[in-house]
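This protein record is not my work; I was only asked to verify it. Where you disagree with what is written, explain briefly why. This is what I was given:
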Amino acid sequence: MKYFTKEWYENCQIYHRSEELEKQIEKSTKDYWEHYDKIEPKLPDCVKYKYVNLHDCKIIDSGFEGKNFYMNIDSSGGFCDVNKLTFVNAEILESDVGSNQKLWWLYDELYFFQDRTDCYERHILFATPNGGLAEMIIVFDDIIIDGNWVEED
């Protein structure tokens, strides 16, 4: 994670933040959304944030099916109605997620992989059941979304 790091998240959880800390949090958030606004016109609909907000969704199962990486999702605690994400032609570049670990999706960042506009990197920050944080970086060509997802007005 470049912007929504573990440290950024932990700082967001501090109830009485200093003015300096608040500015750091706001700067990281602003910087990421400036980055996203630059790439958003080139993104296919299924990877755009305005279509799917997975914050607080529970990842109940994940793994590879051939070259595709799937995540089965319990979205009852989240902000969408998605049952499953499938990252097409995926590769996990980095991960400190344990196997068969139940996770809650917190934040994610999106990038073009190696400046290609047909391949993407999604950096995901998860909460773990023991109160910790875990990160994963997935490279993929496309996303298949199983569930109801519509553009918000």
Observations:
- The longest strand covers residues 103-112.
- The chain has a mean pLDDT of 89.
- The chain has one domain: 6-148.
